From TrEMBL, chain A:
UniProt xrefs under Pfam families: NADHdh
Gene Ontology cellular component annotations, sorted alphabetically: plasma membrane
Keyword Transmembrane recorded: yes
Highest taxon in the source lineage: Bacteria
Protein source organism: Mesotoga prima
Keyword Transmembrane helix: yes
Any one GO MF annotation of this record: lyase activity
Signal peptide feature range: none
Protein name: Formate hydrogenlyase subunit 4
TrEMBL record, chain C:
Keyword ATP-binding: no
Pfam families per the UniProt record, alphabetical: Oxidored_q6
Domain of life of the native organism: Bacteria
GO molecular function: iron-sulfur cluster binding; NADH dehydrogenase (ubiquinone) activity; quinone binding
GO biological process, one term: aerobic respiration
Protein name: NADH:ubiquinone oxidoreductase 20 kD subunit family protein
Segments forming domain NADH:ubiquinone oxidoreductase-like 20kDa subunit: 26-138
Record's keyword terms, sorted: Quinone, Ubiquinone
CC per GO annotation: respiratory chain complex I
Length: 303, 610, 179
């Protein structure tokens, strides 16, 4: 009993460290890939670490209690969610990591950042948050309907159980439900906030939207939160559709492949307006997600 | 516990409070508050034990049947919780003898309704509370008679439908008691079953404020006195949930309609009702996002959550039933807390339009905290209780494989982030208007009931086993399945989660981020007007508060959609035109028209009788 | 304390010099040399320098060219909105000695009197190669711990403020609507 708690704590710390280090490194490499696509050299691949730690050493301003508390809630919620993502054989809470819990805990992070951004009193931040919330309605719906099909077919909504089922069966959900896999991939680009769905950051239009009044440690903490949220969302996709991994290295390899595909796609596309993004998500991705779920429920049935 | 004693006391308390308030208003209100709290405590602590059944004979054939079993206790506790907290909350607000009389009548009616054991008793007491609430809505504002008429019309549709159902039941089955009807209805032909079900369903939809009978909620809430809105939204609409539970779960409606075509294992009639609930969720969410008045916004949120309850109790199954019942509890608490917070703000700033306020978090931090927890519960985010009910409903949807209803459920949940955030950003965050510099925090007598509801929401979010065990008792007494729940873990067929674990992990995450926050350099506090606006200097706070039409790009997507209110107004215009046509033909001022009509009729009569 | 402090400050300076964020504050004609520097030919991002939209997030304020008194007020306000440690790069000869507008009544001649400047880039205007080498010089200056303009602004604040008031009359423009 006591050993269980110790193992849980140690694996949680290990998962958090791996998530942070790996994702920030990958973000740096992604900057280099984008640079090469644009025919230039880029920053060194450890650049994002330097950015985060430099931000944490700067002085900062605060606009009140909710400004501070929102950031704490954002980073705290995201760190809490990281513990529920299994990474290969490094699963902190096997069996009780329910996907709905993951999705809604991630919403705490968004709510915290939204409160803190609007609490800064800058109208640019409110515009950015309005856009971010509207866009969330766009990309979440096709994703949730596809994963409803996944849960119905396998009869479980626990992440680690789904991973072990896919490994035992030998076929990943992406081959079993290919349309759903593609729809989930497109939703994932929206979740990450990468082009063409990064209208809520929009540096040139609304002065980086919610981030407009953040300086110093707030910006550093938000960058950490962004990296961990990236890990959670891509980790969710890899576990649900690509079978997680038998070992940690297999998981990290699949993570890398998915992340670089998204980076290459977003490096070449301009951004949508927010109503274009919502209309896009509610047209073909939603229709295909319904098609996929109807196929799963009526044709494939339960496993 | 003695049901009849409590009921009689409530009924006689109404004129008593009226007379006391003619003498001294505050004494009457304090007496009313104390009485409600006592009734709530009595019901909650003494009602859970044992079951009782009392009959009051009025005439030889007419009986009022009251019962006290787990179902009645559950609904009575919820309703009395909301009423007692609101009764304490409204002590500082404007008082009048008529209002206290009507409030006491509403309470008495609601109590009678939740303790009823047959349809006639339910109907009579429900009508008492409906008529009292109708008169209560027109108390504060002069221009609210139009809204009250809308409420009366739609309530009348429901009431006539239920009256028809009662008489039909009595003529076909010979009884209107819940348990007897449940036994006898299985042997009836399918036409009888369908008629009774649909007639009762219309009453449920009308009283809960679900599509297509949802248009009354918006006007009623915006023109009702601030203190009545929590009771209307948290108490009265839940009576519809009571009726729905009776007609969908207590009656074996799934067995009864089992011979009809099934859709994913659900009879088509129940699925139709669930579909109406789903549409109600979507309509409520989309309309709520467009509102600029905080009370209208929460009214549409009530439409959306009523849709959740209708959906959950219609698809049946262990988890949906438990989820629907828990959602009744959660939504009652959260909606009442939201309305109370808005009422506290309106008491201080005299307005509920969100774009006229801003930055009130520095002046009213506790009200902000109450509102924040309430919206986290409505959005369904752990560790509040709203997540528990939503999770249970999702598990049932996953288990049955219902994509369209799941689409509506997810739409409502994610869309609710948008509309609950709007009052938060508009009222509490942003720039503080100079005219609100003098606003202070709400008085303690208003804060205490709000804080109580908040604590309950968090308590049942971290320890949902408490509430789920009560619900398990209810479903067991009906003969349904129970949800497997241990100290903090809820186990469903398709997944499980542990609420204490989630809360602990969240607190650990907060601790880690607090550690990083503290280790870095301390932040300097600056004024809200020291903001980045391209290097320019800010002086007028009200120009920099962005909350009017916050979701304008999203609203533009739905501008061309058909609106129920427009369709109803155009229908009423057409009826008026038809009436004008009749008037022009038959009631014309011109006497020659009468002579012409008489001649035509006489000619026709002679020709027919020849 | 001092050894540990010095080591920590050295590490912090190394971090700051390798990740400079520049404010998009491009007024004046020198701004035209910035897009070529930022884009693919003379890639600025490989030095770790990236653009940031607001003064709250930025480290470097790049004063590109002449400054009229109207713009100087906003520059001072934006500089005070930035968070320490912050650096100013005076870009072009107009910030050094007035450049070709040295005899104008509306522009200032020496930027260092009003805000502390860490690095000047002479030229009218400096080409991207000059800009990149200037940034490299700024980075080594930060590494050595000599780019302390922000500390000087705090210590000699009265001197800077009196210069600003002498040139501008008032720094924070008074509110015409409410007076």
């Amino acid at each position: 009993m006591f050993m269980n708690i110790v193992i849980t704590i140690l694996s949680g710390i290990a998962l958090l460290v791996v998530a942070f280090v790996y994702t920030v490194t990958l973000e740096g490499i992604a900057r280099k890939i984008e640079a090469r696509i644009q025919r230039r050299y880029g920053p060194p691949f450890w650049q994002n670490f330097i950015d985060i730690f430099k931000s944490l050493t700067k002085y900062s301003i605060s606009h009140g209690f909710i400004f501070d508390f929102g950031i704490l809630m954002a980073l705290g919620g995201t760190i809490a969610t990281v513990f529920f993502i299994p990474a290969g054989n490094l699963a902190v809470f096997p069996g009780i990591d329910n996907v709905f819990v993951v999705i809604y805990l991630l919403a705490i992070g968004l709510l915290g950042m939204a409160m803190s951004a609007v609490g800064s009193g800058n109208p640019n931040a409110s515009i950015g948050i309005g856009r971010a919330l509207a866009q969330m309605l766009g990309y979440e719906l096709p994703f949730m309907i596809v994963i409803l099909g996944v849960f119905f077919h396998h009869g479980t909504s626990s992440l680690s159980d789904l991973v072990s089922i896919q490994i035992a069966q030998g076929t990943y959900n992406a081959w079993l439900m290919p349309i759903g896999g593609v729809v989930a991939f497109v939703s994932l680009i929206g979740m990450l906030g990468k082009k063409p769905f990064d209208t809520f950051i929009a540096p040139a239009e609304i002065a980086s939207g919610p981030l407009v009044e953040y300086s110093g440690k707030y910006l550093g903490m938000l960058m950490i939160q962004h990296a961990l949220a990236t890990f959670i969302e891509i980790g969710l996709f890899v576990n649900l559709f690509l079978g997680g991994g038998r070992t940690l290295w297999e998981f990290l390899l699949k993570f890398l492949i998915v992340y670089f595909s998204i980076v290459i796609i977003s490096a070449t596309i301009p951004r949508f307006r927010v109503e274009q993004a919502i209309k896009f998500y509610w047209k073909w991705p939603l229709i295909f997600s319904f098609v996929q779920v109807i196929i799963v429920v009526f044709v494939m049935g339960r496993r | 516990m003695n049901i009849l004693f409590v009921l009689a006391a409530s009924l006689f308390a109404a004129p008593l409070f009226f007379l006391i308030s003619k003498w001294k208003k505050s004494v009457a209100y304090i007496a009313y508050a104390a009485f409600q709290v006592l009734v709530f405590l009595y019901v909650f602590f003494w009602g859970g034990t044992g079951a009782s059944y009392e009959v009051v004979g009025i005439t030889s054939k007419l009986n009022f049947n009251f019962s006290m079993n787990p179902v009645n206790w559950f609904f009575a506790s919820i309703v009395m919780l909301i009423i007692s907290t609101t009764a304490v909350f409204l002590l500082p607000l404007k008082k009048s003898p008529v209002k206290i009389f009507l409030l006491s009548l509403v309470t008495a009616g609601v109590l009678g309704a939740v303790f009823s054991a047959d349809f006639l008793t339910l109907m009579i007491f429900w009508e008492i509370s409906t008529w009292s609430s109708l008169l209560l809505i027109i108390q504060d504002k002069e221009k609210s008679t139009g809204e009250a008429i809308k409420y009366a019309a739609i309530a009348a549709i429901g009431s006539y439908s239920m009256l028809f159902a009662i008489f039909y039941m009595d003529s076909r089955l010979g009884t209107v008691e819940f348990s007897s009807v449940a036994l006898k209805i299985e042997s009836q032909p399918i036409g009888v079953q369908l008629t009774i079900f649909i007639a009762l369903a219309i009453m449920v939809l009308a009283k809960m404020g679900s599509f297509p009978l949802h248009t009354w909620l918006r006007g009623s809430h915006s023109s009702a006195p601030d203190e009545f809105s929590p009771i209307l939204s948290g108490g009265l609409t839940k009576l519809g949930g009571f009726l729905l539970f009776i007609m969908s779960i207590v009656f074996p409606s799934f067995k009864v309609f089992g011979n009809l075509p099934l859709l994913n294992g659900i009879p088509i009639v129940n699925y139709g009702l669930a579909l109406l609930g789903g549409i109600s969720i979507v309509v409520g969410t989309v309309m709520a996002i467009r509102m600029e008045d905080a009370k209208e916004l929460i009214a549409f949120s009530t439409v959306s959550n009523s849709g959740y309850i209708v959906l959950a109790l219609s698809i049946g199954g262990t988890y949906a039933t438990a989820g629907g019942m828990m959602h009744i509890l959660n939504h009652a608490m959260a909606s009442a807390a939201m309305f109370m917070a808005i009422a506290a703000v309106a008491y201080m700033t005299k307005t509920t339009r969100m774009h006229e306020m801003g930055g009130l978090i520095v002046k009213m931090p506790f009200t902000f905290a109450v509102y924040l927890v309430a919206i986290i519960s409505v959005a369904g985010i752990p560790p509040t209780s709203g997540f528990v009910s939503k999770w249970l409903i999702y598990q049932q949807l996953v288990q049955d494989g219902l994509p369209f209803l799941a689409f509506a459920a997810f739409f409502g949940s994610i869309g609710s982030f948008m509309y609950v955030f709007k009052p938060l950003a508009g009222i509490f965050l942003g720039q503080l208007k100079p005219e609100h510099e003098k606003v202070r925090e709400a008085p303690l007598i208003m804060l205490a009931p709000m804080a109580f509801l908040t604590l309950l929401t968090i308590f049942w979010g971290v320890f949902p086993s408490n509430a789920i065990r009560s619900i398990n008792r209810i479903t067991e007494s009906i003969g349904g399945g129970t949800v497997d729940v241990t100290f903090s873990r809820i186990v469903a067929l398709t997944g499980q989660w542990d609420s204490v674990l989630v809360t602990t992990v969240f607190v650990i995450g907060l601790a880690i981020s607090l550690l990083i926050f503290m280790r870095a350099k301390k932040a300097r506090h600056v004024d809200l007007l020291d903001n980045y606006t391209g290097g320019d200097f800010l002086y007028t706070a009200e120009l920099y508060h962005f909350s009017y039409r916050m979701y304008r790009p999203f609203d533009r997507l739905f501008e061309k959609w058909p609106s129920m209110e427009n369709w109803l107004s155009s229908t009423s215009e057409k009826i008026k035109e038809l009436g004008a046509l009749f008037r022009a033909v038959f009631f014309n001022r011109n006497p020659q028209v009468y002579i012409a009509l008489t001649v035509i009729v006489l000619v026709g009569a002679f020709w027919w009788l020849r | 304390m001092s050894n540990e402090y010095k080591a920590w400050e050295k590490v912090a300076n190394m971090l700051r010099s390798r990740s400079l964020w520049m404010l998009y504050y491009c007024t004046g004609c020198g701004a035209i040399e910035l897009p070529p520097t930022m884009t693919s030919r003379f890639d600025m991002e490989r030095l770790g320098i990236g653009p940031m939209a607001t003064p709250r997030q930025a480290d470097i304020l790049l004063i590109t060219g002449y400054l009229s008194t109207k713009t100087l007020r906003r520059v001072v306000y934006s500089y005070e909105q930035m968070q320490s440690p912050k650096y100013i790069v005076g870009f072009g000869s107009c910030t050094l000695n007035g450049g070709i507008y040295y005899d104008s009544y509306a522009t200032i001649n020496k930027l260092d009197l009003y805000v502390p400047v860490d690095l000047y880039l002479a030229g009218c205007m400096p080409r991207p190669e000059a800009i990149v080498s200037g940034f490299a010089a700024l980075m080594s200056k930060i590494d050595r711990g000599e780019a302390n303009g922000w500390k000087e602004y705090q210590e000699k604040n009265d001197w800077y403020k009196s210069n600003q008031i002498e040139a501008l009359g008032e720094v924070y423009v008074h509110d015409e609507f409410h007076e």
